[in-house]
Amino acid sequence: MKKLILAPLAALTLGALTGCGGSDVDYNDNTKLKIRFHVDIGSVEGMAYSQIINDFNRENEDGIKVTATFVARSAGDTTYDLELQRDMKNGTLPDIITFDAPKCAEYASYGYFYDLTNQFSADEKAKFVTLNTYKGRLYGIPIQESSAGIYYNKRYFQEAGIDVSDITVDSPWDYARFKSVCASLKARHPSIVPAVMRFKDNNSEMATYLLYPFIYASGGGFVDETGKQALGIFNSAASIRGYQFLRDLYDAGYTDYKVEEQSFYKGEAAMLLSSGWTIPLMKDYTTTFPDDRNSWGLLPYPKDVTRASANGSWSYAIGNNPRTDKTNVIKLLKYITSAKSSKKITNATGMIPANVDAQETYPANSAEDVLLQQLEKTSIKRPDTVGYRQFSDTFRMVISSLGSEDVATLVNNKATYLQSELDKIK
């Protein structure tokens, strides 16, 4: 119902909204630009993007008008990819496209993106926590920065006699302590699941994004620097050790394939592996968390032989379309990646601003502080490879079978499969 009410309002302010394509754009008219977003127009994030475009249309004095389209990613990664493939083939790419950061190498190699290397000064580039590059060239500017950690129910921890006050990003818990905490929770609260580790999300990028740091933390990896060699890396002894840790959690009954994000919000689980987008949601679950910030906390990723945490979120790129004069498009890109715009998005999503000028000084040990510290000190991006889609699919195949197959055999087989897929990429 919320979406049905909001969508017409957005259409009135943004102009003609269509589901796809840029075929209605006159690329010779540099005052009419088109941008495509990856979320539903009626979502909180979609409304924030709508407001930013409304602001640009109202504030600019050069007669530039931007039309926004929304192709919700909930329709599936394949749908979004097919949109890009079709528009690239037809020469109808929007002027600005949103894309998931780890897809940069793949999309840039296909020629979807306009090279931004010389369009941003060194000082402008320095304002962003990360940048999206391929072969040393700049192709994307992040919308917001993403980090994740372990949300926990303080009441359950207190009742189990668990003290985590000493755990910080600089002094994190390790895998052994994580298991010990799970054991204590299971003993005290046998009716709840100690941790939602997102195994159920193995059919989406969610599982890849939230679980890949555990492999890096064990000293493992996925592909080499060329992005095309997986054998010996994806299935190294260190990588298998990381997968085995996740399997151990399943075998001990500390997590399973049934629990999901909602299980934590409902009080059916004591911990939740999730990202910053969970922060603004917590206030809606007053039954489980009656005192908001005093009812829950956020702990950093546990470490094994090293520290590792997730990063990388959605970004903006300029479409490599027939428009030869990109001056106004670049002006729009700089506006929507400004501190002002970055703040509007992250106020809606709970994420960390990509533009450092929009970042705040968060209270020590607050959820936001933990996320920001991880971004600065422990984050490692997902594999930088033109075969990212193949990697993510393979990683999630491992997760989907992790609870039922021998870990070493499973990972070795999937490494061979991934290598065969990467070998097909020219």
Task: Give the helices and strands, then pairings.
Blueprint: H1 2-14, E1 32-37, H2 44-59, E2 65-70, H3 77-90, E3 96-100, H4 104-109, H5 122-125, E4 132-134, E5 137-142, E6 144-145, E7 148-153, H6 154-159, H7 175-188, E8 193-196, H8 205-217, H9 237-251, H10 261-265, E9 269-275, E10 296-299, E11 314-318, H11 327-336, H12 339-349, E12 352-353, H13 367-377, H14 388-401, H15 407-422
Parallel strand pairs: 1-2, 1-3, 8-9
Antiparallel strand pairs: 3-11, 4-5, 5-11, 6-12, 7-9, 7-10
Helix pairs in contact: 2-12, 8-9, 8-14, 14-15
CATH domain topology of the largest domain: D-Maltodextrin-Binding Protein, domain 2
Along the chain, the helix and strand elements come as: HEHEHEHHEEEEHHEHHHEEEHHEHHH
CATH architecture of the largest domain, by name, is 3-Layer(aba) Sandwich
Structural class by sheet pairing and helices = alpha/beta
Q: Strand order, main sheet: write it out.
A: 2-1-3-11-5-4
Percentage beta strand: 5-15%
Identify the CATH homologous superfamily of the largest domain. Answer: Periplasmic binding protein-like II
Number of extended strands: 12
The global form is: globular
Q: Using the coordinates above, name the CATH class of the largest domain.
A: Alpha Beta
Low-confidence stretches: 1-22
Radius of gyration: 22 Å
Distance between the termini: 47 Å
Task: Describe the overall structure.
The protein has helices at residues 2-14, 44-59, 77-90, 104-109, 122-125, 154-159, 175-188, 205-217, 237-251, 261-265, 327-336, 339-349, 367-377, 388-401, 407-422, and strands spanning 32-37, 65-70, 96-100, 132-134, 137-142, 144-145, 148-153, 193-196, 269-275, 296-299, 314-318, 352-353. With 426 residues, it is of the alpha/beta class. The protein folds into 2 domains: 2-146 and 312-369, Periplasmic binding protein-like II (D-Maltodextrin-Binding Protein, domain 2); 148-310 and 387-422, Periplasmic binding protein-like II (D-Maltodextrin-Binding Protein, domain 2), CATH 3.40.190.10. Strands 2-1-3-11-5-4 form a 6-stranded mixed β-sheet. A 4-stranded mixed β-sheet has the order 8-9-7-10. The longest helix has 16 residues, at 44-59. It is globular, with a radius of gyration of 22 Å.
